[in-house]
Design a protein that fits this description.
heterodimer; A: 480 residues; mainly alpha; globular; B: 312 residues; alpha/beta; Rossmann fold; 10 helices; 38% helix; 11% strand
């Protein structure tokens, strides 16, 4: 079920009524209802996928309890690795099996051996598998580290794993944040619910109005890149940067918004990443739930930046390469990760990677300084060029595409109309940049009637824009 | 919660009112013809692509020869060449692309339409107009009307005040004849002093600007697929290059140079292409041009006679 579909609207209305008016009196019932609804939501794609999520839930539930009870370090380690191996196995099989088989065949071919790819299988990638496996893994790791007490309430744990607003495309939640909220009685909060509706509306606009319209241009440009000149290819790369941002952050906004309607707070996943002043800041603002997951569960256990410079550099490369590989079974994602690592290393060596952690660009100001503008533009340019690898079918195509971007300028830049969407998005993001949760607390001092008229006007604009683009598509991040 | 529900009711009523208004407007006015409530398109552009495909499918036994073109083909009234064996339909639609034409032809064949003649008319739009751009354009997106269902997105499209304005039939306007021959009929478009035997002024295109050729891989792929298909089914296929006005050439030189390069590549690839007026541009004149892009029926008729000669 897609957030931008009529089915989901009906589902959400019915669910909201049941959640707050029928099952609200008892937490157990409310959680059971939330769990069933989450399974319906997920099973809507393919009910067979439910077996995997159930299996993952059962394994991590029991391992979590056993880990907590066990006092022997060796046994605890075994249990932890059992959970990690189980989750990585299902992820590896469904997402990476064919990639490894095909890569092996290619390698043996390159070495002069004739091998047949008889091991490749017709495997369907279950939606959101990378998200929920990472979520359940963090649960057992946190218990192992004594950062979390496991729950014995299976329904609540299963609800934490399958919580429908963020199940298929994140944000990847930690049990330390989400589980206590599921275990506690939730009360309806009007302010938060209204804020949730705002986030849903803004997410919908980003997805349906911006991402989906740019997607048509991006697909055409990348699929026929040899037919265009550099001007169009630059537009294609720029549009993809905006498309993937609007697609993914739009989904996260809607997920956070829907959760707010249910009285649950999710962590932020995007904080205006294209206004970053260096690549370190970009990664603190882009897909935050994934980058912090890798930081806490891969980078720090590897030693982080505590060891020698070489060890730290190795860790930086590992985390970026793994992060790239997480996105998909293709060398393009690995190269994309490597490029980001290469961009990160200089600022790390200069000790500037922790710069800009406290403040955002032009904080509480209307415009950035000239230096900030240059920093933002150069970071954005580097990110846009790296996206070419992310979007291309293979590494060769990406290199060809980049070469043509810089060598061929003789084609009239058709597809310029997409620049309106890009400009509008960046302008609105700039206005919202100090308030990513759309609290609009500054508006509280104004007359309520004035606010209502403003809201009505905004709703009309949203409905108008969405109705122009009613037939929209799937979210990009579902495939990861 | 009560106050929240009151808010929701307020928002929902706005949304509901919006959709009621657009629904009532679109159902009654049906500017694109997709909802089946409009059959005449005087000075208003319907979703010709979908309507024309459906019209052909509904009249599978009537037509066996087709012109596919973007809007320039509206003046090519191929039905004037109708014989007892050959019945033409003009599949012209605004900004149509070869990729779409190919899909339509496959659709016709799938529905057992016997095709004898195909003319695929091209201009620089074959390079620069992209099919994907039509996906979110109400007048160009292809909608299969075979299935009898309500096309909700057309029912709730925003109200177009421009479309609501009635056409002043005493002024220059186009009539889109979807349900008879597919032609465009330009009304009040020509000055009264256009003599029947007046000839267009041809200007030799001596422009020698040198720009590198872009790849035409996606276009050539479709042209060759078409050629292969037509050879297999013994369909008489002709690619036709639309002529260009002098004014249009001077305003879109680079695009038209690339188009001429594409014609050259097509000739090298031995694709059957008819280029009326070859390397000549046509002087702009109200008797021959509706605007700088679209030629009149007078030019269209000349092209028809050149086509007849080419076929022989």
């Amino acid at each position: 079920m897609l957030f931008n579909s009529i089915e989901f609207l009906v589902f959400l209305v019915l669910f909201f009524v049941g959640y707050w008016f029928v099952f609200h009196s008892k937490l157990k019932w409310q959680n059971a209802f939330l769990l069933i609804a989450s399974y319906v939501f997920y099973g809507w794609w393919d009910y067979r996928f439910l077996t995997l999520i159930l299996l993952s839930t059962l394994v991590d539930y029991y391992i979590g309890l056993a880990l907590y009870k066990s006092k022997k370090e060796r046994e605890r380690k075994l249990l932890l690795w059992g959970s990690i191996l189980f989750n990585l196995s299902i992820l590896g099989f469904f997402k990476y099996f064919n990639f490894f088989v095909d890569s092996w065949v290619d390698l043996t071919h390159a070495l002069g051996y004739e091998t047949q790819s008889t091991w490749s299988l017709q495997i369907i990638l279950p939606v959101g598998i990378s998200f929920y496996t990472f979520q359940t893994m963090s649960y057992t790791i946190d218990i192992y580290r004594n950062n979390l007490k496991p729950t014995s309430d299976f329904i609540s744990f299963a609800t934490f794993v399958a919580f429908f607003p963020q199940l298929v495309a994140g944000p990847i939640e930690r049990a330390t944040n989400l589980l206590p909220q599921i275990l506690q009685k939730r009360n309806f909060n009007k302010e938060k619910a209204i804020q949730g509706l705002r986030l849903i509306a803004w997410g919908l606009v980003k997805k349906v109005v911006i991402a989906d319209t740019l997607a048509l241009k991006v697909d055409d440009i990348f699929n026929n890149y040899t037919d265009f000149g550099g001007g169009v290819l630059w537009l294609g790369a720029l549009y993809f940067a905006i498309q993937i941002y609007c697609d993914f952050s739009g989904y996260s906004d809607m997920a956070i918004g829907v959760s707010k309607l249910l009285g649950i707070e999710l962590k932020s996943n995007f904080k205006f990443p294209y206004f970053s002043r260096n690549i370190g800041e970009f990664w603190r603002r882009w897909h935050i739930s994934l980058s912090t997951w890798f930081r806490d569960y891969v980078y720090i256990p590897l030693g982080g930046s505590r060891g020698s410079k070489w060890l730290s550099l190795r860790n930086i490369f590992i985390i970026f390469l793994v992060s790239g590989f997480w996105h998909g079974a293709n060398f393009t994602f690995i190269v994309w990760g490597a490029i980001h690592a290469a961009l990160f290393v200089p600022i790390y060596l200069l000790g500037r990677n922790r710069k800009h952690t406290k403040t955002s660009v032009a904080q509480h100001k209307m415009l950035p300084s000239f230096i900030e503008l240059l920093q933002m533009l150069s970071t954005f340019l580097a990110v846009v060029l790296a996206w070419v690898f992310f979007r291309s079918k293979n590494v060769t195509q990406a290199i060809d595409y980049l070469t043509l971007m810089f060598t061929s300028f003789d084609f009239p830049p058709i597809y310029k109309s997409g620049l309106y969407s890009v400009g509008a998005l960046l302008l609105i993001d700039w206005i919202f940049k100090d308030d990513e949760r759309l609290r609009f607390s500054k508006l509280k001092k104004y007359d309520k009637r004035f606010i209502r008229v403003g809201e009505a006007f905004c709703i009309l604009i949203v409905v108008y824009l969405v109705s122009l683009n009613l037939s929209s598509g799937q979210f990009i991040y579902f495939q990861f | 919660m009560k106050s929240f529900l009151r808010n929701i009711a307020f928002y929902a009523s706005i949304i509901l009112l919006y959709f009621i208004a657009t629904g009532v407007f679109n159902y009654n006015y049906d500017p694109y013809g997709i909802l089946g409530n409009r059959k005449e398109f005087i000075g208003i552009r319907p979703n010709e692509h979908s309507l024309k495909v459906q019209h052909v499918l509904d009249n599978a036994s009537i037509y066996n020869s087709f012109l596919f073109s973007n809007s320039k083909g509206g003046a090519l009234h191929f039905n004037q060449l109708n014989t007892t064996d050959e019945k033409w339909y003009n599949m012209t639609y605004s900004l149509g692309t070869p990729e779409e034409f190919y899909d339509d032809i496959l659709r016709f064949l799938k529905h057992n339409i016997e095709i004898k003649n195909l003319v695929i008319a091209l201009d620089d739009g074959a390079i620069y107009e992209r099919t994907s751009a039509h996906e979110n354009q109400a007048s160009r997106k292809f909608i299969s009307l075979k299935e009898k269902k309500v096309n909700w997105e057309y029912l709730f499209l925003p109200i177009s005040f421009k479309k609501m304005q009635q056409v002043d039939t005493s002024k220059k306007h186009i009539v889109h004849d979807v349900f008879k021959d597919g032609n465009y009929y330009a009304k009040n478009a020509h000055p009264s002093n256009c003599e029947l035997d007046k000839k267009p002024v041809l200007v030799l295109n001596s422009d020698q600007i040198s720009i590198p050729s872009v790849g035409f891989s996606s276009q050539l792929k479709i042209f060759k697929e078409l050629q292969k298909l037509c050879e297999k089914l013994e369909i008489n296929l002709v690619f036709l290059a639309h002529p260009t006005s002098k004014e249009n050439y001077s305003k879109s030189t680079e695009r038209l140079v690339q188009f001429n390069k594409m014609i050259g590549v097509m000739k090298n690839e031995e694709l059957p292409i008819l280029v009326p007026f070859e390397n000549y541009l046509i002087q702009n004149d109200d008797c021959f041009w509706l605007d700088r892009h679209h030629y009149s029926k007078k030019i269209g008729d000349t092209i028809l006679s050149l086509y007849t000669e080419y076929k022989l």
